[in-house]
C-alpha cells in the first residue's frame, strides 16, 4: 500500500509537470486532494493541478472556524481522538466525491469517508429517503411494526447467496462482529474463535480480541481467540501457498483447543491492516476444517462489501465460498450509523433463546436510507465504476513500476478496494 501510494504520487507529480493545469484530470474521481483554487499565493499550491470543473457551489459558511472547533474538541472530547494533517481540515460540506472546507475549498475524498461513502456524499436519492422518512417517523423500535426495516431486510437478503436470509440490524461494524461472535459461540457450544493476524474487527472489549494489530489493542483479557498466520500472498511466510497457511489453522485447532471451535472470522481483504488480500483458495480450505471442528465461518464485509472490490458484490465471492455469517457496516449506510449481520435461519434462531433487543437497530430512518443506498449502488453501477477506476489506476501504476524497475506486487483487487 505504502509503495502503491508512493508510485501514485510520483505518477501524479510527473503528469502534473508534463500536462499541467486542469487538463491533467481527465477523470474526476482520480484526482485526489488537489487545489480547486488557481493559487493562494504559496508556491507549492500554485504548482498543483486543478480539479476538474464541478457544477456545484458550496453554501457560504458562517459557522465556527477550524481553530475554535479544534480547541473545543481538545477540551471536551477524549484524548484518544486523532486527526489527519498538521492543521486538521474543518470540513463543512460534502457533495458526491467532493468535500468542502470552511473556505469553500474543494477536495476529492479519495478516502470515501474512511471507506464508508458508497454512493457519494449527500447523494440526492439517499438524502431524499432519509428526509421523507424523518418527516413521518424518526424513531420506532422493533416492538412495533414498521415497513422500512422489513423492506430493507428483504432487499439485503436478496443480495446474499445460499441460505443467508436472516438479517439482524445493528449500529456499527464492531457491534455486528460482537453479535456474530455471540451467535457463533451459542450455535457451536464452544468459545474458541480463530482470527487472522493483522486483522481488524473492531475495538470493543470482545472484538479487540479478534483484532490482531497491537496498535489497536489494550491490555485487557482478549477472550478465547487464536490468531493464525496471515495468508498474505505477497509478504506472508508461505507466499501464496494456501495449504501451508491452512495447516497452521489445523495446528491451532489440534493443539490449542479441545478440537472443537466456535468459529473463524476474517476480512476477505484486510482493510485497516493495509489492503492485504488472502492467498488464493485459502477460505475454501479453512472453511472446510473449521466446519469439521464444529465452528461457523464468518466473513467480515465491513470494508469489502457492496461492490467495492469491483469484481464482486461481496469480498468472500472472490474466494468462491459462502460463509455462515456475514457482517457489514460502513458502505451499507453511505454514512448513516448502520450495521448488519446476515446469517441462516438455523444460526439466527440461537438468539431467540433470550431477549435480543437493539434500540436503534433497524431504525426507520436508517432503514429507509440503507434501502436507498442499495438501490443507488445498483442503479448507478457503482461496482462497475470501482472496477473501471481501479483498473485504470493499476495500468498507470504498472507503467511506473516498469519505469522505476520496482518489483513491488501491484494487486488489482486491493487497489480497486482501496480507491473507491
Ligand atoms: C473490517 C472491519 N471490521 C469492523 C470494523 C469496525 O467497524 P466500526 O468502526 O463501524 O465499529 C472496521 C472499521 O474500520 C473494519 O474495517
From TrEMBL:
Chief subcellular location: mitochondrion
Gene3D superfamilies recorded: Aspartate Aminotransferase, domain 1, Type I PLP-dependent aspartate aminotransferase-like (Major domain)
EC number, UniProt record: 2.6.1.44
GO MF annotations, alphabetized: alanine-glyoxylate transaminase activity; pyridoxal phosphate binding
Subcellular locations according to the entry: Mitochondrion
Source domain of life: Eukaryota
Reaction equations catalysed: glyoxylate + L-alanine = glycine + pyruvate
GO biological process, alphabetically ordered: photorespiration
InterPro entries associated with the record: Aminotrans_3, Aminotrans_3_PPA_site, PyrdxlP-dep_Trfase, PyrdxlP-dep_Trfase_major, PyrdxlP-dep_Trfase_small
First-level EC class: transferase
GO cellular component terms, A-Z: mitochondrion
Transmembrane stretches, start-end: none
Cofactor(s) this protein cannot do without: pyridoxal 5'-phosphate
Protein keywords: Aminotransferase, Mitochondrion, Photorespiration, Pyridoxal phosphate, Transferase, Transit peptide
Pfam family name, one: Aminotran_3
Family designation: Belongs to the class-III pyridoxal-phosphate-dependent aminotransferase family.
Subunit structure: Homotetramer.
Protein name (database record): alanine--glyoxylate transaminase
UniProt organism field: Prunus persica
Amino acid at each position: 500500500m505504502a509503495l502503491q501510494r508512493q508510485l501514485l504520487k510520483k505518477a501524479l507529480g510527473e503528469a502534473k509537470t508534463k500536462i499541467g493545469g486542469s487538463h491533467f484530470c481527465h477523470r474526476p474521481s482520480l484526482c485526489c486532494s488537489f487545489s480547486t483554487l488557481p493559487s493562494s499565493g504559496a508556491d507549492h499550491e500554485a504548482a498543483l493541478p486543478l480539479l476538474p470543473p464541478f457544477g456545484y457551489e458550496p453554501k457560504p459558511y458562517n459557522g465556527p472556524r477550524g481553530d475554535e472547533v479544534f480547541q473545543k474538541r481538545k477540551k471536551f472530547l477524549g484524548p484518544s481522538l486523532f486527526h489527519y494533517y498538521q492543521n486538521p481540515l474543518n470540513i463543512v460540506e460534502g457533495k458526491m466525491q467532493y468535500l468542502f472546507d470552511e473556505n469553500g475549498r474543494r477536495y476529492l475524498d479519495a478516502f470515501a469517508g474512511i471507506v464508508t461513502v458508497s454512493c457519494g456524499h449527500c447523494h440526492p436519492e439517499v438524502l431524499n429517503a432519509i428526509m421523507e422518512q424523518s418527516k413521518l417517523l424518526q424513531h420506532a423500535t422493533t416492538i412495533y411494526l414498521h415497513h422500512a426495516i422489513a423492506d430493507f431486510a428483504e432487499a439485503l437478503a436478496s443480495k446474499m447467496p445460499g441460505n443467508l436470509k436472516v438479517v439482524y440490524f445493528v449500529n456499527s461494524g464492531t457491534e455486528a462482529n460482537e453479535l456474530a461472535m455471540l451467535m457463533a459461540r451459542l450455535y457451536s457450544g464452544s468459545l474458541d474463535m480463530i482470527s487472522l493476524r493483522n486483522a481488524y474487527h473492531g475495538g470493543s472489549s470482545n472484538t479487540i480480541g479478534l483484532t490482531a494489530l497491537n496498535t489497536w489493542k489494550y491490555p485487557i483479557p482478549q477472550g478465547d481467540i487464536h490468531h493464525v498466520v496471515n495468508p498474505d500472498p505477497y509478504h506472508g511466510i508461505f507466499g501464496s501457498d494456501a495449504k501451508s497457511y491452512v495447516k497452521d489453522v489445523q495446528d491451532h485447532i489440534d493443539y490449542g483447543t479441545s478440537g472443537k471451535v466456535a468459529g473463524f472470522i476474517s476480512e476477505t481483504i484486510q482493510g485497516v491492516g493495509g489492503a492485504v488480500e488472502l492467498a488464493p483458495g485459502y477460505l475454501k480450505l479453512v472453511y472446510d476444517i473449521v466446519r469439521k471442528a464444529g465452528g461457523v465461518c464468518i466473513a467480515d464485509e465491513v470494508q469489502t462489501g457492496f461492490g467495492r472490490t469491483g469484481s464482486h458484490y461481496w469480498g468472500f465471492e472472490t474466494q468462491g465460498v459462502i460463509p455462515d455469517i456475514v457482517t457489514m457496516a460502513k458502505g451499507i449506510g453511505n454514512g448513516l450509523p448502520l450495521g448488519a449481520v446476515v446469517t441462516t435461519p438455523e444460526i439466527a434462531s440461537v438468539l431467540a433463546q433470550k431477549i435480543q433487543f437493539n434500540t436503534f437497530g433497524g431504525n426507520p430512518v436508517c432503514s429507509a436510507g440503507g434501502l436507498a443506498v442499495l438501490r443507488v449502488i445498483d442503479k448507478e453501477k457503482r461496482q462497475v465504476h470501482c472496477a473501471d477506476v481501479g483498473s485504470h489506476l493499476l495500468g498507470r501504476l504498472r507503467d511506473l513500476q516498469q519505469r522505476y524497475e520496482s518489483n513491488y506486487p501491484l494487486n488489482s483487487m486491493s487497489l480497486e478496494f482501496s480507491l473507491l
